[in-house]
């Protein structure tokens, strides 16, 4: 039976269900429950331009699956589209349960005048998104999804088709950049008067606004991208000041004008694995002592304003990010995600000795 998770108690069950589903999965990393609650909080700036409906599948008092239907008005205004989204999909390996969940989400989107359903997005492409399609050999890095392999079958059985694949690459610090690229980056910096600087904690809000401006303009024409509002971007990034070292956020300036940036974050899943969904007085000391031991990273964004893209600034940012991770005694990190058909970026990443090691899939179905 499908139940709408509208009450606080049912929302709690919605959040708690993955803890039951994945209890024996060694690769699953439990999110912090209080962070999950924020994703459904009406006060979240995302919901100023969107709305969400949560559904649970219950049988004999036991939850067997969950799904969210998302109406993203800002996406449809920006792309002149009529696409609805599904997200937060978790389910036992059962066609009847999965189909009932997809039926409920589809019906809600049809009621809102939408013509197709796309996902998973949790709740948008600016958050975690995609179904793990290839790469079931280890736990995910921070803010990347994970799911059982049978999800592919459940989703495709309902009639979903591939909309787009997202690529994740891995680069080990053992695979140092070719010396010719290092020399070339020096020449580029000198020729075009490009300098690199770290994010400023003193002027954090100023720099965050610079990152927001570049982020919105650099990805403006990418498939599925919707520029977050300034309020939403600040909401998503506010923890960066205390959790991410300034040296990991690199801003490129040409002639003193910000034109590109890269953001690398520690793989906080190393900590979350120990937290098991909650930070309490009992595990706080253990968690804090674990932070210096994080040796895996994720290059989460690298964007360049369109008018500066042919200067080779991306090479400067790749090499500097590598050097920072190496200096911090990191073993390497994931570069994710990129669109499968972004050949220029994907080839550049591979040329830096990275390996394409995971694929995530976004699905779509006409309603």
UniProtKB/TrEMBL annotation:
Question: Source organism's superkingdom?
Answer: Bacteria
In terms of Gene3D superfamilies, this protein maps to:
3.40.630.30
> Where along the sequence do coiled-coil regions lie?
none
What InterPro entries is this protein classified in?
A: Acyl_CoA_acyltransferase, BcerS-like
Q: What is this protein called?
A: N-acetyltransferase
């Amino acid at each position: 039976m499908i139940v709408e998770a509208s009450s606080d108690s049912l929302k709690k069950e919605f959040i708690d269900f993955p803890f039951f589903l994945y209890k024996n999965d060694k690769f699953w990393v439990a999110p912090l429950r209080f962070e999950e609650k924020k994703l459904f909080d009406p006060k979240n700036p995302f919901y100023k331009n969107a709305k969400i409906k949560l559904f649970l599948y219950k049988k004999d008092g036991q939850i067997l699956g969950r799904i969210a239907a998302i109406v993203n008005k800002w996406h449809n205004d920006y792309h002149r589209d009529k696409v609805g989204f599904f997200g937060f999909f978790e389910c036992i390996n059962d066609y009847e349960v999965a189909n009932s969940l997809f039926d409920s989400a589809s019906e809600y989107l049809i009621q809102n005048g939408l013509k197709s359903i796309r996902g998973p997005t949790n709740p948008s492409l600016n958050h975690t998104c995609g179904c793990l399609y290839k790469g079931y050999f280890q736990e995910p890095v921070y803010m990347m999804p994970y799911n059982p392999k049978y999800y592919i079958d459940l989703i495709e059985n309902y009639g979903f088709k591939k909309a787009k694949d997202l690529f994740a690459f891995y680069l080990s610090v053992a695979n140092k950049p070719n010396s010719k690229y290092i020399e070339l980056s020096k020449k580029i910096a000198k020729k075009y008067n490009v300098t690199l600087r770290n994010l400023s904690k003193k002027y954090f809000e100023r720099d965050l606004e610079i990152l927001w401006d570049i982020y919105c303009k650099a990805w403006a024409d990418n498939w599925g991208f919707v520029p977050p509002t300034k309020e939403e971007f600040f909401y998503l990034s506010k923890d960066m000041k205390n959790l991410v070292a300034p040296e990991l956020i690199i801003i490129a300036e040409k002639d003193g004008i910000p034109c590109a940036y890269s953001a690398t974050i520690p793989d906080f899943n190393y900590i979350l694995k120990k937290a098991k969904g909650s930070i309490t007085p009992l595990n706080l000391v253990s968690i804090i002592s674990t932070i210096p031991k994080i040796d895996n990273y994720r290059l989460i964004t690298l964007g360049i304003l369109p008018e500066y893209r042919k200067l080779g600034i991306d090479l400067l940012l790749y090499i500097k990010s590598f050097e920072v991770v190496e200096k911090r005694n990191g073993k390497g990190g994931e570069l994710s995600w990129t669109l499968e058909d972004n050949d220029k970026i994907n080839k550049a990443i591979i040329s830096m000795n990275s390996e394409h090691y995971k694929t995530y899939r976004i699905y779509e179905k006409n309603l």
